[in-house]
Amino acid sequence: MFFRKTLKGAAPENITKNRRLLLANERTFLAWMRTAIGIMAFGFVIQKFENPILKTNSSLKCHCIFYAGLFLVLLGVIVAMLATYRFIRVQKDIVEDVFRPSFIPDIMIAILLGSIGLLMVIYLFTSGYG
Q: pTM of this prediction?
């Protein structure tokens, strides 16, 4: 329903002419959604394994694993929201047959996904060699 409103008022020839682009945009959106679900699932798994790790290793006093899991779940939600925003914007651009580069959402997604790597590096350095 919502997406039909974004295509309403568009010239039918633009939709037919650009149907491959519209389908490619949809595939890209679904790939970003899979990525967001994967990030959220990884955060959930990390958070669920917090208790067994804390029971076996009593030197871990902080709840870093809890916060890392929570961060990843929130990061997945943010990635899903940015992907949805980008999908709607690109969909409108394709139908209107214009090109408007989107630097800010791309940079935000890159920073958010780069923060996962940084978080993992910090965790690996603080956890030691066992």
A: 0.72
